[in-house]
Write a structure and sequence with these properties.
The complex is a heterodimer of chains A (about 425) and B (about 575). By secondary structure, chain A is of the alpha/beta class. Chain A has helices at about 45-55, 95-105, 110-120, 135-150, 165-185, 200-205, 235-250, 280-295, 300-305, 310-325, 340-345, 350-360, 365-375, 380-390, 395-410, and strands spanning about 5-15, 20-30, 35-40, 60-65, 70, 80, 155-160, 190-195, 205-210, 220-225, 295-300, 325-330, 335, 380, 415-420, 425. Mean pLDDT of chain B is about 80; it is low at about 1-20 and about 50-60. Classes of the chains: A alpha/beta (about 425), B mainly alpha (about 575). Bound molecules: adenosine-5'-triphosphate and magnesium ion.
Chain lengths: ~425, ~575
């Protein structure tokens, strides 16, 4: 029997007319002895799914069972490792590690023994009486691991555990984790890992579950990774898997069921079906310039290396360039269009002149600009746009969409925004 | 690519350690002796509290300066008793508000109103109630005094702790629920430590403000009867009545020693100790230091005590499990919850409605009827005018000075503790001297009242102006120098925007303090002469002294209304402006 079983899970957050799903139709089993990676773009609902598995947030519908029993509260068979470590700064390393056992009411002596064993296992000896702030990031995350492992949960849940660490530390910690897992001393039976790093997913997981984000988080594809460990990143199989998964993630692979069943491709772009990627003007201008420097075309893998960015940080920028018609994506290659070339070569004023007509074609930007033009005095409260968007996005998403639209519209000088009064207006702000 | 971080075992900050881990050192002896003395003093002072008294014999304050240490001790005991009560209130009220959706909707608005109510007007009601509760004992008066100080301390502390409770970082909430913490563990290991720094700092500020109310509450006349408690405040009062300026001087000196001593021996060590609850995961460049704390840390006592108490902590942890586990059920019965909400709302509204009806009935039965509100509404304008002048003048005077001080690290080091102590020093202590001055110069109290109110209130503006100026980054100032921006333009472009957020905080506190002070500043006596100003403060003071309850009620209600309205209509807007536009 699977340790965790998810059937027909949906999770919605409140929108204007009823709830808006951020996860829908998720079916997933976590079995004994496997490492599962949940992979997806930012906002695809990875963290939400993980917290549903932990029993920390209630699903809107569907069930999650642990060893066959439906969850009613926090999942007794899981423990979580956090991206930001979530250590208690006023407790020593040992006290932090003991905390889960204390919650279970274990007597002091047993707690101590178990904690010291976990500290030993995870390579923290000598740090027992240190406080978290005295430790480096890598050491802190070790404490996070030890704290979760000491309660011997069936399933270890990890939400981007390595992404707050620098590259070398993350690499080191990943290696140690795998060694421990392979050694058979690992006190848990399965691991679920949330990540937006494709390479990390393929390196660690037995199974990679790719979540799609539009129109809401669904499982787009699942890949079994049969490669033997330790895995060689330069092997042909490894790089091929990465390419395939990358194409799936960006929704351009041939084996992806896009559009999702039941949803027909819309004929017209609207603010509802064309969400703005979370990319600032500075961000995608920078990317365009780098592409330009490399002759206008570059492979995504090379780009991530060049920028030392995670692919997930890069995707919104690429999406933005594509949406604006400044770049086109073929397979894993990004290519600047002629406009894109002009945009990246121009000085500030000219680049604005090139950007403005492209931006006005973006549904949300156009919607704001035309609404303002049609209003009595050329001003509208942000609340108006929030209300309109709330029919299609959750409150968090609405805030994000408007932030991006404000940034783009301001740069294009299509409208200005007064943060204090939360008001958009057509005219330039008074000096 | 980023530079790899320094290796794991960075050197831990050197913390004062005991020289040898031996059992005893001279430090321990000193600390033990200190504790013993403290215990003795508390018992000695506390013994007198339950002495029976007849109201006539109370004013037997002995103005021999030799008695001052004793009086100071009694005053101090009151202050700490009030602090303890405030702390308990804070923990309970804030916890209830943060953890119960329904209670939150009642408790937080109530707190917002309570903090606008002029505390001094409460005092009379409190004295009457407590004296009736403990007839023939000083205990009633003591409790009334403690209550008055409590009402000046508790609200700030509660707001601070409530705020920290509702902003508990999401991961820590998830950690607590995911690991199955008991509610007690969540409180003890997560919530209380996260809120500790805010709590300690707010308690320290409130404690400083509390001296004012201590002095006011030691000397009060209610319903044509003088009540006096032994303490520094009443000592000064007696000295003033006797017209002995020398003794008044001794009282002022004692007060200064008290304020500075408590700061040095209690608050500095406490704030320094609270540094360990900083949530930032990195070493701060500048940390609070305290000589006393360093000294205590060299003693073996705290460690031994900690070890001895470990079983107790364990037991508390086990007992705490009785409060249940910190978990949120995934399935909520929406209909039951709705029904509970409706019931709660109905009961609350019914209680409030019933109270209002009986209040209106009570007022209507009085000779003046409901028109009793008319006079305080008008008088409020006079007091409002005083507050406005005070804040405006204090701003014009102290902001430039504060900026000057804040820009110079050397001046700041000297000035900041001094200003802190000036703000704590109970201004009403100096009222008699000022009154004497007014009598000599013939200055009307209508104008002089502003000065009296300013004696206490102005320091908040200065203090916050310094803090705001310190927060302006040096490189910004240097950039302005480079660009040759000087004079008014420099103020407009850099200084005002930089100081503004901090200034607003100070001005809110100052104006609140001024309203409160008006109750004691608009009526003053020296020797046999009483000066009275036209204003709401004098109105309340008069209603208090004569035991005119309808007037008292109307006065307090109107003053609270003024404060709440001004906060909402004026200060809160400025606050928003400060947050949005002028945050550096
Ligand atoms: N409490 C909430 N209220 C409204 N919307 C929410 C809430 N929490 C999450 N969302 C929305 O749900 C979507 C999924 O969020 P989630 O944090 O699970 O994504 P994620 O895949 O973990 O993204 P990231 O890689 O940025 O961590 C996002 O669009 C987010 O805006
Ligand atoms: Mg996430």
């Amino acid at each position: 029997m699977a340790l965790l079983t998810v059937t027909g899970l949906t999770k919605s957050y409140a929108g204007a007319d009823g709830d808006l799903p951020v996860l829908a139709g998720i079916d997933l089993d976590i079995n004994e002895g496997e490492i599962v990676a949940l992979l997806g773009k930012s906002g695809s609902g990875k963290s939400t799914l993980l917290r549903c598995l932990a029993g920390l947030i209630p699903p809107s519908s569907g069930t999650i069972t642990y060893r066959g029993r439906p969850l009613t509260g926090a999942n007794p068979g899981t423990a979580m490792v956090f991206q930001t470590f979530a250590l208690l700064p006023w407790l020593t390393v040992q006290q932090n590690v003991e905390i889960g056992l204390e919650a279970r009411g274990l007597p002091a002596r047993e707690r101590r023994e178990a904690a010291l064993k976990a500290i030993d296992l995870i390579g923290l000896d000598g740090f027992e009486s240190a406080y978290p702030k005295e430790l480096s990031g890598g050491m802190r995350q070790r404490v996070g691991f030890a704290r979760a492992l000491v309660v011997e949960p069936d399933v270890l849940l990890m939400d981007e555990p390595f992404s707050a660490l620098d590259v070398l530390t993350a690499e080191n910690l990943r290696g140690e984790l795998l060694e421990l897992w392979e050694s058979g001393e690992f006190p848990t039976k399965a691991i679920v890992l949330v990540t937006h790093n494709i390479e990390e997913a393929v390196l660690l997981a037995d199974r990679v579950v790719v979540l799609a984000s539009r129109p809401y988080g669904t499982i787009r594809a699942t890949y079994d990774i049969p490669l033997p460990r330790p895995r060689d990143r330069d092997s042909a199989d490894f790089t091929k898997l990465i390419d395939v998964i990358y194409q799936t993630m960006t929704g351009r692979g041939h084996d992806t069921p896009l559009p999702p069943p039941g949803v027909r491709a819309p004929a017209k772009r609207t603010p509802a079906n064309t969400p703005l990627p979370a990319a600032s003007v500075d961000g995608f201008s920078g990317l365009a310039e780098i592409l330009q420097r490399h002759g206008g075309r570059l492979d995504v893998a090379e780009l991530t290396d060049e920028l030392s960015l995670e692919v997930d940080d890069l995707l919104p920028l690429i999406d933005a360039l594509e949406l604006l018609g400044f770049a086109a994506v073929e397979g894993t290659e990004v290519r600047l269009t002629p406009q894109g070339c002009a945009f990246s070569e121009a000085d500030v004023q000219t680049s604005k002149e090139i950007f403005a007509p492209a931006a006005i074609e973006i549904p949300l930007v156009r919607f704001i600009a035309t609404s303002l033009a049609n209003s009595v005095d050329g001003r509208l409260r942000a609340g108006f746009f929030r209300d309109v968007l709330a029919h299609h996005y959750t409150s968090e998403q609405v805030a994000e969409q408007l932030d991006v639209a404000t940034d783009w519209g301001r740069y294009a000088e299509l409208y200005s925004y007064d943060t204090l009064h939360e008001e958009y207006s057509l005219e330039a702000p008074p000096d | 690519m980023g530079v790899p971080r320094s290796p794991a075992n960075r050197v831990a900050p050197s913390r004062p350690r005991s020289p040898r881990p031996g059992w005893f050192s001279w430090v321990d002896v000193v600390v033990a002796a200190g504790l013993l003395v403290l215990l003795y003093v508390v018992i000695r002072l506390g013994k007198d509290i339950t002495l029976s008294f007849t109201p006539t014999q109370v004013s037997g304050i002995d103005t021999d300066p030799v008695r001052l240490p004793y009086y100071a001790g009694r005053s101090l005991l009151r202050m700490f008793a009030a602090l303890a009560v405030s702390l308990v209130f804070t923990l309970v009220w804030a916890y209830a508000a943060a953890h119960s959706r329904r209670l939150e909707r009642v408790l937080i608005p109530a707190l917002d109103i309570l903090q606008s109510v002029p505390v001094l007007a409460f005092l009379t009601v409190a004295v009457t109630a407590f004296v009736a509760l403990f007839p023939g004992s000083v205990l009633g008066l003591e409790l009334a005094s403690v209550f008055a100080i409590f009402t000046s301390q508790a609200w700030n502390m509660t707001f601070a702790f409530y705020h920290s409770l509702i902003t508990t970082p999401r991961e820590l909430d998830e950690l607590s629920r995911g690991m199955g913490f008991s509610r007690w563990m969540r409180f003890w290991k997560v919530e209380l430590p996260s809120g500790a720094i805010g709590l300690v700092w707010n308690a320290m500020m409130s404690f400083g403000g509390g001296w004012f109310f201590l002095v006011a509450s030691e000397l009060i006349s209610v319903s044509n009867r003088e009540y006096t408690l032994p303490g520094v405040g009443s000592y000064a009062g007696a000295a003033i009545v006797a017209g002995n300026l020398g003794h008044v001087g001794w009282a002022i000196l004692t007060m200064a020693i008290l304020v500075i001593g408590v700061n040095f021996l209690f608050w500095r060590p406490l704030t320094a100790w609270a540094e360990r609850f900083k949530v930032e995961q990195s070493e701060a460049a500048q940390v609070q230091r305290s000589l006393v704390l360093d000294f205590l840390r060299r003693a073996n006592w705290p460690r031994l005590l900690g070890r001895a108490l470990a079983p107790l902590r364990e037991a508390a942890g086990r007992a705490g499990r009785a409060f249940g586990v910190d978990d949120r059920p995934l399935l909520v019965d929406v209909r039951r919850r709705r029904a509970g909400d409706v019931l709660f709302t109905v009961v609350t509204l019914a209680l409030i409605g019933w109270g209002l009806v009986s209040l209106v009935g009570y007022l209507a039965d009085q000779p003046a009827g409901l028109s009793v509100f008319a006079e305080p509404l008008l008088l409020g304008l006079a007091t409002l005018a005083r507050v406005v002048v005070l804040v405006a003048v204090a701003t014009l005077v102290w902001v430039p000075i504060g900026v000057k001080i804040g820009f110079s690290p050397r001046l700041t080091r000297i000035a900041q503790p001094v200003v802190q102590i000036l703000a704590s020093f109970p201004a009403n202590f100096l009222f008699p001297l000022a009154t004497w001055l007014f009598l000599r110069t013939g200055l009307s109290l209508n104008i002089g009242g502003i000065l009296l109110m300013a004696l206490g209130a102005q320091w908040y503006i200065l203090f916050n102006a310094i803090a705001g100026a310190m927060a302006i980054p040096t490189d910004l100032r240097e950039a302005m120098d480079d660009l040759g921006v000087h004079g008014w333009r420099r103020w407009k472009r850099l200084i005002i925007p930089g100081v503004f957020p901090s200034y607003v905080t100070g001005a809110i506190t100052a104006s609140g303090g001024a309203w409160n002070a008006s109750i004691v500043a608009e009526v003053v006596t020296f020797g046999g002469t009483t000066l009275t100003a036209t204003g709401l403060g004098a109105y309340i003071a008069h209603a208090t002294a004569t035991g005119d309850h309808p007037r008292l009620l109307a006065g307090v209600a109107v003053m609270s209304m003024y404060v709440v309205l001004i906060n909402r209509l004026f200060w809160r807007r400025l606050y928003r402006l400060a947050e949005h536009r002028y945050s550096l």
